[in-house]
Amino acid sequence: MKAKTTAFIAFFTGLLIVMFACESQDSLEFKRYYVNGKLIYQQRCQNCHGANGEGLSNLMPPLTDVAFLKKNKQQLPCFVNLGLKGKLLVVNGKTFSNNMPANDIAPVDIAEVLTYVTNSFGNKMGVVTAEQVTAQLKACK
Amino acid sequence: MRKIAALLFIVLAYSACKNGDANSRLPIYGNRDTKNVVVNGKTVVDTVYQTIPAFRFVNQYGDSITENSLKGDIYVADFFFTTCPSICPIMHRNMLKVYADFKNVPDVKILSHSIDPKHDSVKVLKAYADKLGISGNTWWLLQGKKEETYNLAQSYLTRRPEESAKDLFIHDGLFLLIDKQKRIRGSYDGTDEKETERLIADIKKLRAETNTEIAQ
Questions:
Q1: CA–CA separation, B6 and A2 (whole Å)
Q2: Is the confidence metric ipTM above 0.85 for this complex?
Q3: Nearest CA in chain A to B131
Q4: Which CATH number fits domain B51-208: 3.10.180.10, 3.40.30.10, 3.40.50.410, 3.90.1700.10?
């Protein structure tokens, strides 16, 4: 009986350790993407989209529309990489058709900046990995 | 006794600061010259301040705008272009705060000069104004001869705009505050939120100053 209890406790403790280890590794990866992404955001995106992702009137779209980000999740790396030219986007109920410049940066940088954007300004969409971005970039039209 | 002295000192220092603040006038920038004028039969030396020279531009509504359109107005000037990817969005995000504060004040105006008149036609400027969310005659987006705009930029003591090899325009992100006598009274970093707050405070100060002068 005692042995069973000990084994159970040992198993349960082990399970907890594994769970926490996994979680901390995930959160470590998330933090790495997020922190680097913040820097890229400040250098490349903030002028137009604002320090709080607020955008600028009807000129620059805000990055606070979770529904838009979720709906266009697959396209987001394409937007960052190729930019946008006169495409009509409906964000937060407003229509935007301004040009956005292309960004010649590595997929991992795109993944980092998207992790930052989709987990800031009230968004909470989890990590975007370099592998996902690489795959999505291949499908850009 | 010491305590009272210290307290008195604090009170005096505070009132001195407060006094200084209320009476302090904004500086007058630029080169200055002197001229002799005759007042009551006596020749006295008067200071001549640098002023913004005459100009002629077109605003977003297609109206012709000259220095006479600003008679009796305090105004804020800046230089930008609508396709500017760098500092212009930050400048105009800040300028919107100035606009929000003074859009119903009749003697305050904002003049944004396009340094890329070739692309920034009246139509493009109107579309930009609409998207920016500005209307009425408080904030004019102006375009005209490029040379005239570039020369004017220098009159405002900002750097003369340049075109780089990549055909992007390089310019200062300054907001300039001009009084009713067309003198430069303030210069602010338009990309900085704190500087924009200072500009808003200085516009209020300048309005109080000129309105007192008129009352006298």
A1: 77
A2: no
A3: A58
A4: 3.40.30.10
